[in-house]
Amino acid sequence: MTMRRPGRVPRDPTGLPLWTYSFAALGVALIVVPPLALLLRSPWGGFIEQVTSPSSVDALRLSLITASLSTVLCLIMGVPMAVIFARHDGPFVRVLRSLVLLPLVLPPVVGGLALLYTFGRLGIVGEHLHDAGIDIAFTTTAVVLAQTFVALPFLVISVEGAVRVVGTRYEEVAATLGAGPTRTLWRVTLPLVAPSLLAGVVLAFARALGEFGATITFAGNAPGVTQTAPLAIYVSAIDDPQAAIPLSLVLVAISLVVVVGVHSRRRRRTGAGVL
């Protein structure tokens, strides 16, 4: 009597359990289907007219300008913070790091309120600025500060992780060859973490571009002054949700181009490094 061998269970070439693909598909659908819904429901007949309207153009221009400025501020302040957090590990640094990363989980409206009570006319800093004739709240400057507040942690956490991974070996070699701390940072550390730095810049820019809660609380919603694209979309959606779709699709397209472009560049850099 011959025994029949049990049928072999299909296996994935990568060794992953097959059930992981089911949950991954659900996750992909959750992210991909909503933008597709915007495409399907968009009023294409008046798309160009709505996107090129003065209010939409002003809001989009303001968003791009302020998001770019806030990204520059994130670079100036975030890179030094990330390097310091990666190279020091004491109780004070850990507490400070937690506070810096707080906007990652803090509701944006709460962040905007905190900024208002810091830089507003009655704020702990703003009242002194007001006495000097400087008002920040409800101005374009407030938009930049609000965006920087919520975007800065994204750059810090991206760069800090990369600096920790590369270690200090190459920096120590540079120091033995006579390179000073500043030269080592510019010529050794930053080039080593360039892909992660670029990813952090993209995350910071995208977060700043989509910022809403802190902006409307701290900067208001004045057309041409503080009304960014997300605020313009929100105002349009109140009266007519379909009227908000065209500008929403523009933001989706900008975000997609930025993310795909940076991802492609990182793949090319990785491939060049392997070859």
TrEMBL record:
Membership in a protein family: Belongs to the binding-protein-dependent transport system permease family. CysTW subfamily.
Gene3D superfamilies: MetI-like
Keyword Metal-binding: no
Subcellular localization: Cell membrane; Membrane
ABC transmembrane type-1 domain span: 60-262
Top-level taxon: Bacteria
Recorded GO CC terms: plasma membrane
Subunit composition and interactions: The complex is composed of two ATP-binding proteins (CysA), two transmembrane proteins (CysT and CysW) and a solute-binding protein (CysP).
TM regions (residue ranges): 21-40, 60-86, 98-117, 137-163, 184-206, 243-262
Alphabetized SUPFAM superfamilies for the sequence: MetI-like (SSF161098)
Membrane topology qualifier: Multi-pass membrane protein
Protein's job: Part of the ABC transporter complex CysAWTP (TC 3.A.1.6.1) involved in sulfate/thiosulfate import. Probably responsible for the translocation of the substrate across the membrane. Part of the binding-protein-dependent transport system for molybdenum; probably responsible for the translocation of the substrate across the membrane.
Name this polypeptide is given: Molybdenum transport system permease
This protein's record includes keyword Transmembrane helix: yes
Keywords recorded for this protein, A-Z: Cell membrane, Membrane, Molybdenum, Sulfate transport, Transmembrane, Transmembrane helix, Transport
InterPro entries per the UniProt record, alphabetical: MetI-like, MetI-like_sf, ModB_ABC, NifC_ABC_porter, Sulph_transpt2
GO terms for MF: ABC-type sulfate transporter activity; molybdate ion transmembrane transporter activity
One Pfam family matching this protein: BPD_transp_1
